[in-house]
Design brief:
By secondary structure, the protein is an alpha+beta fold. Helices cover about 50% and strands about 15% of the residues. The protein has 2 domains: about 90 residues, Orthogonal Bundle (Arc Repressor Mutant, subunit A), CATH 1.10.10.10; about 70 residues, Ferric-uptake regulator, C-terminal dimerisarion domain (Dna Ligase, domain 1). The strands form 2 sheets. A 3-stranded mixed sheet has the order 4-3-5, with no helix packed on it. The chain has a two-stranded antiparallel ribbon with strand order 1-2. A hairpin with a 5-residue loop joins strand 3 and strand 4. The longest helix is centred in the last third of the chain and has 20 residues.
């Protein structure tokens, strides 16, 4: 599946560098310290084409040295607070934020087949959730919208496979 066009900005060296520079600038502006370990966790997430769990990040970080899970969780908490990453609740995993340069409410499209995640920003969807919550007297602290389905690539792959299977069945 090497030609899978998964989240086009993930993994490209220039995009990873841009994200790290944005992170450094944002932390500096907020008076927060982006330590080498926090930066490395962010780099691992930005380089990955898939969401990663804390333990997967820990394995990447270890590189032969003993590290405990709290080390990763502290870095992840910091990066979440700074708006540099997102936590995908349904997957218990993390992804780098595609738009850390401005505050936003993200929604995520998660492919059930390949595991790919696409971050989208739909203000009207976020507004609808806020309005519905307000009508109920509910005061949300955090809103997470994750849609599970098939990405365009996997959907097309399944359609082609289904068409080929039907054609084989008709030839018999």
């Amino acid at each position: 599946m090497t030609d899978h066009p998964l989240n086009s900005c993930k993994g490209k060296a220039t995009e990873v560098d841009r994200m790290l520079q944005l992170a450094e600038r944002r932390c500096h502006q907020q008076g927060a310290r982006l330590t080498a370990r926090r930066r490395r966790v962010l780099e691992i997430l930005c380089q990955s084409e898939r969401p990663l769990s804390a333990y997967q990040i820990l394995e990447e970080l270890r590189d032969g040295a003993p590290l405990a899970p709290p080390t990763v969780y502290r870095a992840l908490d910091f990066l979440l607070e700074q708006g540099l990453i997102h936590k995908l609740e349904t997957l218990h995993a993390f992804v780098g934020c595609n738009h850390p340069d401005h505050p936003h409410a993200s929604q995520f499209l998660i492919c059930a087949d390949c595991g790919g995640v696409t971050e989208i920003e739909d203000a009207s969807l976020s507004d609808s959730v806020q309005v519905a919550a307000s009508r109920s007297g509910f005061k949300p602290r955090r809103s997470v919208v994750e849609v599970l389905g098939l990405c365009a690539y996997c959907s097309e792959t399944q359609r082609v496979a289904s068409t080929a299977s039907e054609a084989d069945g008709n030839e018999r």
